[in-house]
Amino acid sequence: MNPSSDPTGLLHAFLLDGQGGGRFLTWDEVQNWTPEQGRIWLHFDYTDPFSCDWITNHSGLEPLITEALLTEETRPRVIGIRDGLLIAFRGVNKNPGADPEDMVSLRIWADNERIISSRKRKLLSIGDMLEQLQKGNGPADSAEFIVSLADRLVWRMSDTVDLFEDRVDELEDIALSEERSTLRFELANLRRQTITLRRHLSPQREAFARLLVEKISWFDDTNRMRMREVSDRLIRHIEDIDAVRERAGVTHEELLSRMSEQLNERMYVLSIVAAIFLPLGFFTGLLGVNVGGIPGAENPWAFLIFSLILIAIVVVQIAVFKWKKWL
Length: 327
Prior knowledge:
The protein is of the alpha+beta class. The protein has two domains: about 10-260, CorA soluble domain-like (Beta Polymerase, domain 2), CATH 3.30.460; about 270-325, Methane Monooxygenase Hydroxylase, Chain G, domain 1. It contains eight helices and seven strands. It has helices spanning about 25-30, 50-55, 65-70, 125-135, 140-175, 185-215, 220-285, 300-325, and strands spanning about 10-15, 20-25, 40-45, 75-80, 85-90, 105-110, 115-120. It has a seven-stranded mixed β-sheet, sandwiched between helices. Strand 6 (about 105-110) and strand 7 (about 115-120) form a beta hairpin. Helix 4 (about 125-135) packs across helix 5 and helix 5 (about 140-175) runs parallel beside helix 7 (about 220-285). The longest helix is centred in the last third of the chain and has 67 residues, at about 220-285. The chain is rod-shaped.
């Protein structure tokens, strides 16, 4: 952890030893750092006034780079500037209570001597990198740092993609049962999450591809090969997200089809019942008018005879319906 005397906007300063490890630096050590001591990684919270001031006025970076490190809205990209890389990556928001599709942005300037990164919200992949470095298993230089960070970001996405796949499996099983009261809402929510996540990841795929073709002296072929593997894994995640979205769409269509079938069945039953009672209502209404001359008005057996006639009409109707295979 950083000493309490360090500026609040500086989340950490780490000196890489070139062997996969290193140590934290105090702010005084950062100010006295020289490239001969090793590569340095400075990680800032860009919303802090100190961070804004130091990056803008004391980092020695060009205005284009400082503006990119401090901008509020950004999308994944990789831009080669002289012999350095200006990078913006996104990672899945794994913070407690956050939605997975609410991505966290990370802005990076990297050259062969130093790495300057900034963020607003906590990104767990950064914590993974620090843990690796403290164990001596982290990146040895700037190129390995970028590849390892991209790899960590993609691995963190795996849990979210697996969660989406498990969820759509559950919803498909529920769609085959009778418990479908909230299924339409859950399917719509899952589709919304996958669409949002894919919209955020597609530019990252383009950024990874751009990183592979940038001509940077310190980014060698070995790191490009590793980066290509990370890019391929990201593409597989995007394809899996597309598959989840399509499966959710098919399940939603199947649900609507089943609901339509149930509605048609109920309407059919109501139609049969209405067809049976239609002639009965006609005869009872005809004989129920309050005028003289109603047949059987003086006959004590008239009601029984009339009831038997109605029953016979119902029997004949049912027989006709069965003959027509309507029942």
